[in-house]
Every structure is written in structure tokens, then in C-alpha cells.
Design goal:
The complex is a heterodimer of chains A (291) and B (453). With 291 residues, chain A is mainly beta. Chain A is 0% helix and 56% strand. In chain A, a hairpin with a 5-residue loop joins strand 22 and strand 23. Chain B is built from 15 helices and 18 strands. The longest helix of chain B has 25 residues. In chain B, strands 1, 4, 5, 8, 9, 12, 13 and 16 form an eight-stranded mixed β-sheet that branches. Chain B is globular, with a radius of gyration of 22 Å. In chain B, strand 17 and strand 18 form a beta hairpin. The chains are: A mainly beta (291), B alpha/beta (453). At the A-B interface, loops of A face helix 14 of B.
């Protein structure tokens, strides 16, 4: 992949997410703002202000008409990305929110953070619907299965848990890693769960049986974030070692190393058309890479 | 407030009333009028010297073991993520993220064993040398105020003490330096303290002040009006000096970085004028370093500034090491540019530069990837002022927990700074509000560092 744009915030960037049509990128920063970028030109389109602390995650609704953000200020907000208007603020977390994910149908949000609880939110009613308790330390990452029936959560307590969202009960704990779980993702077909961990590894489990399938090594420092490419063949990981690495999902073989960031990589997102990759870093930049 | 005759409601071409303009000085200097300030200086028996100090305060407590005192042999939970690199002085290693400083270590001195921190999250001890507790009536003057009191103005049109520290959410870090019992006449001129962070002069923007044509047009008209009224002849010497500061372009020029070449500004690193890190501290504004050089060049005796946000407790606001990777290269660029610039201008032996914070950080990395407060020991960097450079003073034990040999107290550092300005801390005193002479440091316990001579 080649570097297409380097986009800048005046402080660390925690997350960058493509809009469904891949024309806009939203970025979340420790500068308390969200920026919207025109991906045709690489120019900043808008800065959304309203959070009172760093913004840790952003995600677009499937139709691209809403933008959701989660912040260290303990709140989640809903924005209109067309005009930057703040629509709603949702509260409930008692401590910093660190992570957020949206179900594929856009109906449910999940958020986690330093109160050790995963909260589920109805995006239409804009209210909290459920709490998943069990982790004993901060929750760093959450991901929905593609069918929306399961949720994976990774924590500083060292566990990676799978939850049944119909019952609200924990199904299983995936084992094999050592240390905090930093990033988690389901494969597009829902058959695998991948996690990046403090032990510098990326691991892949069978989502149905919980069997550990592949352990990928190569990063020099802990793995902070991971993402499957939409075609399901490639897995990307970002690390404190300042590299983004692309791996073959079948066998864990390395495919490519993306260099250029100068601090920890905090997020990775593939565009839906599989052509682009956005990486956000504590080095204050978002880098947009293209096939 | 200085009163000038003439129409009070007339305005300059930029819309600023002349009365507002004259008020600039009074408000910026602790509410005292400039004439009172200058009168107080004269009463203090001021001297003349071209020596000056630039203090860079690293708000929040920088990690000594990740900057100047790495512990590569310590267990992983203590040594951290960074490796030491050799400097151009054999035997002195510093952090890999300070490569510029490593290449000019022969022009710097490191103190690895600063002790005596009160443990307070505040600039106070780095500004005064004294703890907040048990202050004399009126309060200890910050060292800039003490220097202002003892030495006065070095050059007409330039306040002796300027603080570039901006307003911050954490007010104890945005302390620009109290005048204390030195008197409000010696409070710092603090152009960023109003929170605009734009090098503004109490609402009069630098853009306005540096707009030479409008400024001079305005001042010429003011002078004509004043002269016509005959008021200027009626002013006493102090008022005339005050008028000189207000109408001199020296201060405004010094703050106007547009007068420097873009190449030099790039060399300093410019910076981002937004709060660094968690958002509750100052920005990483390398422009302030350049402004500090311009201010001492123009005649300021002491320039202090706060830089960044060094209180790195860990996630979710970034680990100690992520923040260090963010801050250290910028500090490295700014400090090395400043020292090079001072050297190239022939000022380095007259200007002392000190870089430090209120305390060090815990040897053991916490579970959030941070390091917490550690008042037992901290570090500092000194350059210029004719010090003996290329050396490390003091050391800590194997884990960086405490000073192993040659503990250096804050007041010994201040003793050295005062000495570099030609002030003898064994004799110089300032009366407190009871009229009792107060030494600048506890000279019975602490003396200037002999290693630096």
C-alpha cells in the first residue's frame, strides 16, 4: 500500500473511521475534537467540538447519516456529519469511555471503559439498554459479530470474553494470550475472532469453538489495534512499535509492513471497498494508505 | 494609573482608545501603574547588568529516568521503553529521544539529583526556590520578581521580568510568578496570562502592536496631542519612563516573531498553540523559546515559560512513553535551537537557560503505563551563563529512587542562577512586609553549586 494522505490533529489521534461511501474520514483526538476530512482532496472539512475530554472512538451509521463518538468525558455523542450539528449526548458510564463499536445493522452501540462495564445502547431511542458486567479492569476494546448476536470484549484484566447479546450472558473466555487485550475484531464471515495483545501477538480463534487457531508474532511491542479487511483475507495490526503490519489470515504470514508513524498506532480501519486503510497514531497524524 | 492630558475618547486607527493603550502596562504588571513600578525599582537601588535567565518549566513533573538518568540495567518494569544514547561528552548518556541535546552535551550540564521538592503539583518551587508552606507575610517573590527588585530595568522600554506562561486549566502550573513581598511593581509582565495564548498584550493583539504603520501613526498622534497639552513636561522621571515603555516598540518588537526568518522559526519548531496532552496544561509552543531569546536580547532579565504537560499517569491519556515520544523530540528541538541561537549571537555566556519541573516520577511503571509523582528526586538541565558545561552533577541509585551522591537542593540551583546574574545570595536581601530583610535562599544551608563555576 502507498501513503495517500497524512492528516494532522494538534494532539494525539485515537481513532479514524471511514464513512460507508469512503468519501469522508472522521478522526477522534485527545484534543477533544472530531475532524471530518474530504478524502477526495485530503482537506479538513469540519471540526466538531463538544466533548470535554479526549475523543477515543468514532463510527458512522451504516447509511452514513449519523456519526457516533465516545469520549474520555464519559459520554457518547451523536452528530450529523453533513453539517456537524450535535444531536444527542448519551451518558451512563461512570468512568472514562475507552472503546465503542456499532452493530452491522446500526441499531446497537456497545461501549466500554474504566468502569469495567460494557454498555449497550439503542441508537434509535438513544438510550442505554443493557450492561454486561464481569470484567475486573478497564475494557479496552469491543466488537460485534457480523450477525449482531455476539459481542467480544477485551480488557486490561487480561481476559477476552464473548457475550451472547440475546441473554446478556458471557458465553466463553478465549485463552492463549498473556496480558491485556488491546484490540479485538470478528472476521467478516463471523467465523473467527482476532485479538491484539500486550504480549506483542495477534491471535486468531475459532469463534464457534473458542479454539486458538493461529498466533502471529512479529511486532516488537504490544499490539494496540487490529482490523480485518472487508474481503476477509487480510488482517491488519497496529502496534506501539510504530508499525502497521498486514497478515495473511489463512496462515498468519506477513504480507506488508507500513512504516511512517512516529508513535503508537491507536486504530486501523479499512474502507468498505477494500481500497484504503486509515491508521491513527499518538504521533498526531492519521495516515491514509491506498492499494 | 498614568494620566495623560488630551481627549480621553479619541482612538487609534485600530479602534483602541489611547486610554486603553496606556492601561496595558498597568494591568499587565499586577495592576500597578508603570510609573509606580519604575519608582519602586529606583527605590530598590537598581543596578545594570546584561546577564539574564530563561527558565523552561516542564509542567507536571518530567520523568527523570526517561530523559537524563536512564536505568538500562533496572528491571523492565522500571527501566521503561527507552534506550540511552551516548552524547558528545564521553561517559554521559541520555535518552534516545533527545538526540540534539546529546550532540551538544558539551554545552550543557545535567543535574540528576535534585531534592527538596515539596511534592506539590505547582510551578511555585521552580519559580521561587521555596515551598508554598510557611511563607513570610506577603509571600516569597518569584526569582524574576526578586531580580527585578534588586537589579531593575536593564534597558528602557523593557520590563525586567517577563513570563510567557499561558493560562491553563491547572492554575498552579500557569503561575506566572508572584511578586510577593518584592511588591507588585515587580510582578512579571505576562502577555499570555489572559488565556488567549496568542502573545497578546491585554487584549491589544500583537498584530495591532506590530502593525508598525498604524502603531506609529497612533503614537505620533498621541505624542502630538500630549506635547500640545504640555503634559509631558509635567511628568516626573518615572512617568516619563513609563511613557517610554508604553510608547517604545522594544517590547512589542521582541514579542513579534514575524520579524525572524521563517527558517529560524522552523529551526525552533514553532509548535501548536493548543493545550498539550490532557488539555489542562500549556501548549508545546516552541515559539516561546524564540520569544524568550528575543526578550532577553531586548533587555529582559528573567523570562520564564511553561512548556507542555509532563504529568503522565498513563492510559487513557496515553502512556508515559507515548507522551514522552510526543514531548521529548519537540523539547529537544526547541532547547537545542535556543542554545545554538544564543551561541551564534554571542549571548550564551550572558544567558543562563534552565529546564526542569516540580518533581520526578515513580521508578515503577504503573499498570496504566504511566509513572506517578516522585518528589524524592528529579532532574534538571542547565546551559549558558558561563557555567562549567559537559558534566553531570549528582546521581541516583540503581533504580532511580533517590539521590545517591551529591543531592542538589532547589535552592542551590537558585543560588547558581542568582550568581550568574551577579547577585550574591549571601548578602542580597529584600525586606518582607514587616521590614525584615529576607535572603533570597537559605544561604546558611545552601550555596551556589561550586561544580558550575
Amino acid at each position: 500500500m502507498k501513503l495517500l494522505f497524512t492528516l494532522r490533529h494538534p494532539n494525539a489521534v485515537y481513532y479514524a473511521a471511514f464513512s460507508p461511501d469512503a468519501k469522508t474520514l472522521a478522526s477522534a483526538s485527545l484534543d477533544n475534537t472530531i475532524k471530518l476530512w474530504n478524502l477526495a482532496t485530503g482537506e479538513e472539512r469540519a471540526t466538531l467540538r463538544g466533548h470535554g475530554d479526549g475523543v477515543c472512538t468514532v463510527v458512522f451509521s451504516p447509511d452514513g447519516k449519523l456519526l457516533f463518538s465516545a469520549s474520555l468525558d464519559k459520554s457518547l455523542k451523536i452528530w450529523n456529519p453533513a453539517d456537524g450539528a450535535l444531536l444527542t449526548t448519551m451518558t451512563g458510564h461512570q468512568q472514562y469511555v475507552e472503546c465503542m463499536a456499532m452493530s452491522a445493522d446500526g441499531k446497537t452501540l456497545a461501549s466500554g471503559g474504566y468502569d469495567n462495564v460494557v454498555r449497550l445502547w439503542d441508537t434509535a431511542a438513544r438510550t442505554a439498554t443493557q450492561s454486561l458486567a464481569g470484567h475486573s479492569d478497564a475494557i479496552y476494546t469491543v466488537a460485534f459479530s457480523p450477525d449482531g448476536k455476539r459481542l467480544a470484549s477485551g480488557s486490561n484484566d487480561g481476559t477476552l470474553r464473548l457475550w451472547d447479546l440475546l441473554t446478556g450472558k458471557q458465553q466463553t473466555t478465549l485463552k492463549g494470550h498473556l496480558g491485556a487485550v488491546q484490540g479485538v475484531a470478528f472476521s467478516p464471515d463471523g467465523k473467527q475472532v482476532a485479538a491484539g495483545c500486550s504480549d506483542k501477538t495477534v491471535r486468531l480463534w475459532d469463534a464457534a469453538t473458542g479454539e486458538l487457531q493461529i498466533t502471529i508474532t512479529g511486532h516488537d511491542k504490544y499490539v494496540k489495534c487490529i482490523a480485518f479487511a472487508p474481503d476477509g483475507n487480510t488482517l491488519a495490526s497496529g502496534s506501539l512499535d510504530e508499525t502497521v503490519r498486514l497478515w495473511d489470515v489463512k496462515n498468519g504470514a506477513p504480507r506488508e509492513i507500513l512504516n511512517g508513524h512516529e508513535n503508537a498506532i491507536y486504530s486501523i480501519d479499512f474502507s468498505k471497498d477494500d481500497r484504503r486503510l486509515a491508521t491513527a497514531s499518538f504521533d498526531r497524524t492519521i495516515r491514509v494508505w491506498e492499494q | 494609573m498614568l494620566t495623560i492630558g488630551g481627549k480621553s475618547d479619541s482612538t487609534f486607527c485600530d479602534g483602541i482608545s489611547r486610554r486603553s493603550f496606556l492601561r496595558v502596562g498597568g494591568l499587565a504588571m499586577g495592576g500597578l501603574t508603570l510609573s509606580q513600578l519604575l519608582q519602586a525599582e529606583a527605590q530598590a537601588g537598581t543596578g545594570r547588568s546584561n546577564k539574564s535567565i530563561i527558565m523552561i518549566f516542564l509542567s507536571g513533573g518530567p520523568p527523570h529516568q526517561d530523559m537524563f538518568d536512564l536505568k538500562p540495567e533496572a528491571p523492565v518494569e522500571i527501566r521503561g521503553e527507552f534506550s540511552p544514547i551516548p552524547t558528545n561528552v564521553p561517559g554521559i548518556d541520555i535518552c534516545e529521544h533527545l538526540p540534539g541535546m546529546a550532540q551538544m552535551m558539551d554545552r550543557m550540564a545535567i543535574i540528576r539529583s535534585i531534592v527538596g521538592s515539596e511534592g506539590r503539583h505547582a510551578a511555585f518551587q521552580c519559580l521561587t526556590g521555596w515551598p508554598v508552606r510557611n511563607q513570610p507575610v506577603g509571600g516569597w517573590p518569584s526569582f524574576g520578581s526578586a531580580v527585578s527588585k534588586l537589579q531593575g530595568q536593564a534597558r528602557a522600554g523593557m520590563p525586567p521580568f517577563v513570563s510567557l506562561t499561558p493560562k491553563m486549566r491547572t492554575s498552579t502550573w500557569s503561575d506566572t510568578g508572584q511578586a510577593g513581598f518584592a511588591g507588585q511593581a515587580h510582578a512579571p509582565f505576562a502577555p499570555n496570562a489572559d488565556g488567549t495564548g496568542n502573545l497578546e498584550l491585554n487584549g491589544v493583539s500583537l498584530e495591532h502592536l506590530s502593525d508598525r504603520r498604524s502603531l506609529l501613526t497612533g503614537l505620533d498622534r498621541l505624542r502630538r496631542d500630549v506635547d500640545a497639552s504640555g503634559a509631558i513636561e509635567g511628568l516626573d522621571a518615572y512617568q516619563q519612563q513609563a511613557f517610554g515603555i508604553l510608547t517604545s516598540s522594544r517590547l512589542a518588537d521582541a514579542l513579534d516573531l514575524e520579524q525572524e526568518s521563517p527558517a529560524l522559526r522552523d529551526r525552533y519548531g514553532r509548535g501548536e498553540n493548543v493545550p498539550a496532552g490532557y488539555g489542562d496544561a500549556g501548549p508545546l509552543m516552541n515559539d516561546y523559546f524564540l520569544a524568550a531569546r528575543r526578550l532577553v536580547e531586548a533587555g529582559a532579565r528573567v523570562v520564564s515559560l511553561a512548556y507542555g504537560r509532563w504529568d503522565w499517569h498513563g492510559r487513557p491519556h496515553g502512556t508515559n512513553f507515548e507522551n514522552a515520544r510526543d514531548h521529548l523530540p519537540r523539547l529537544d528541538q526547541g532547547v537545542t535551537a535556543l542554545i545554538d541561537d544564543l551561541t551564534e549571537r554571542g549571548m550564551i555566556d550572558d544567558v543562563s537557560v534552565i529546564v526542569w519541573g516540580e518533581f520526578g516520577r515513580t521508578p515503577r511503571i504503573n499498570k496504566k503505563g504511566g509513572r506517578d509523582h516522585w518528589p524524592r528526586v528529579s532532574c534538571g538541565l542547565l546551559a549558558g551563563g558561563g557555567i562549567q558545561a559537559g558534566q553531570v552533577i549528582g546521581s541516583t541509585n540503581r533504580l532511580g529512587e533517590h539521590a545517591k551522591d551529591r543531592p542538589v537542593h532547589f535552592q542551590e540551583v537558585f543560588g547558581s542562577l542568582y550568581r550568574n546574574l551577579g547577585i550574591d545570595t549571601n548578602h542580597a536581601t529584600i525586606n518582607d512586609l514587616h521590614g525584615r530583610p529576607r535572603y533570597l535562599i537559605d544561604h546558611n544551608a545552601y550555596q551556589p553549586l561550586p561544580e558550575l563555576v
